[in-house]
Design goal:
This protein has 16 helices and 3 strands. By secondary structure, it is an all-alpha fold. It folds into 2 domains: about 230 residues, Citrate Synthase, domain 1; about 100 residues, Cytochrome P450-Terp, domain 2 (Cytochrome p450-Terp, domain 2, Orthogonal Bundle), CATH 1.10.230. The chain has a 3-stranded antiparallel β-sheet. Strand 2 and strand 3 form a beta hairpin. The longest helix has 26 residues. One of its GO terms (cellular component) is cytosol. It holds the Pfam family Citrate_synt. Pathway: Carbohydrate metabolism; tricarboxylic acid cycle; isocitrate from oxaloacetate: step 1/2.
Length: about 375
């Protein structure tokens, strides 16, 4: 049998999936048959999570029941907070999240129950708790105590409330909801594939999600929007953008937030974040970050003929929402938890352990030489 080698498994089909379709040529992103544009305009995170887990949009009764289940499981055990507080003060937020999820597994008496029903229960529980975990990590880093969830708020509204200690504006809540929807699922990206590989061994859900978080922590996967924010702060003003673009181009540097490993045209998620960044720039009275982003997009696109991706306007938008740059990848994880869990559920329903071959390029067989005879 002829083996096919592709570095990074590029263009290798590793699984059949009915969860999402990413078309890089036309710039399409589809969740369970629904275009991301429609979900961004009309859906909520709770409804989108239900769609990813169950395959269909919920009825009003199903959505209410699902939302109530999430609310009932938002609280995180004190033991998890104690472990997070005991970590080194300079621990990476994603390392803290990885530890937090692993600790949740240790506290679950049914951790090793890998039945379909148990995996669904774990998915809902992790979806509910990861927003609380996200907020607790931010506050612990700041030397503050975590805030308990407010079950009168939506999932997105509650996340922002626990992050910032005050109830968000309508636009800020919408922005958080949109970020959670747009980042929820994206095919066999590195962290999702990692989750499926781990799940294929029939281990527990927590191990799969802990591995996915570890993969997302890597700078080649998560973190691009953090780099965009650092760039905006470095450039400092709209007047400095043109000179910065020319300097990066002359030094053959990289423009973070532009281009995509899959999309050959515009990232379909980017425009939705751009509009909310504009609205929050007005609401907060700080138009500089949005204006700089607009100028940067215009000049960089003309310079390198690449469109901005979902990370670009996510940077200014989250900054307007009161989320510091070092927490951006944790927000990503709080959204992608739905895609990860959906793929784990799909993997274990028709499971086969994932075991690709390696193309051996080392020595041919050779004779062993005693250590005394080696030069």
């Amino acid at each position: 049998m002829t083996a096919t080698t592709s570095k990074g498994l590029k263009n290798i089909v590793a699984a059949d999936s009915s969860i999402s379709h990413v078309d890089g040529q036309t710039g399409q992103l589809i969740y369970r048959g629904y275009h991301i544009d429609e979900l961004a305009k009309f859906s909520t995170f709770e409804e989108t999570a239900y769609l990813l887990y169950y395959g269909e949009l919920p009825t009003s009764e199903q959505l209410e029941e699902f939302s109530d289940k999430l609310k009932a499981q938002r609280s995180v055990p004190q033991e998890v907070y104690d472990v997070l507080k005991a970590l080194p003060k300079d621990a990476h937020p994603m390392s803290m999240m990885r530890t937090g999820v692993s600790m949740l597994g240790n506290l679950d008496p049914n951790e090793d129950n890998n039945s379909k029903e148990s995996f669904f229960d774990d998915s809902l529980m992790l979806t509910a708790k990861i927003g609380t975990l996200l907020s607790a990590i931010k506050r612990i880093i700041e030397g503050k105590d975590p805030i308990e969830p407010d079950n009168s708020l939506s999932h997105a509204g509650n996340c922002l409330y626990m992050l910032n200690g005050e109830k968000p504006s309508a636009d800020a809540e919408k922005a958080m909801d949109l970020i959670l929807i747009l980042h929820a699922e994206h095919g066999l990206n590195a962290s999702t594939f990692a989750a499926r590989v781990i799940a294929a061994t029939l281990t527990d859900m927590y191990s799969s999600i802990t591995g996915a978080i570890g993969a997302l922590k890597g700078p080649l996967h998560g973190g691009a929007n953090t780099a965009v924010l650092e760039t905006l702060k470095e450039v400092g003003s709209v007047e400095n953008v043109e000179g910065w673009v020319k300097s990066v181009r002359a030094n053959k540097g990289k423009f973070m937030g532009f281009g995509h490993a899959v999309y050959q045209t515009q990232d379909p998620r980017a425009k939705h974040l751009k509009e909310l960044s504009r609205r929050l720039s007005i609401e907060t009275g700080e138009p500089k970050w949005y204006d700089m982003s607009i100028k940067m997009e215009e000049l960089v696109t003309a310079e390198i003929n690449k469109n901005c991706n979902v990370d670009f306007y996510s940077a200014s938008l989250q900054y307007y929402m009161g989320i510091p740059g070092h927490m951006f990848t944790c927000v990503f994880a709080a959204s992608r938890i739905t895609g990860w869990c959906a793929h784990v559920l799909e993997q274990v329903q028709d499971n086969k352990i994932i075991r690709p071959k390696a193309n051996y390029v080392g020595y041919e067989e050779r004779s062993y030489v005693p250590v005394s005879d080696r030069s």
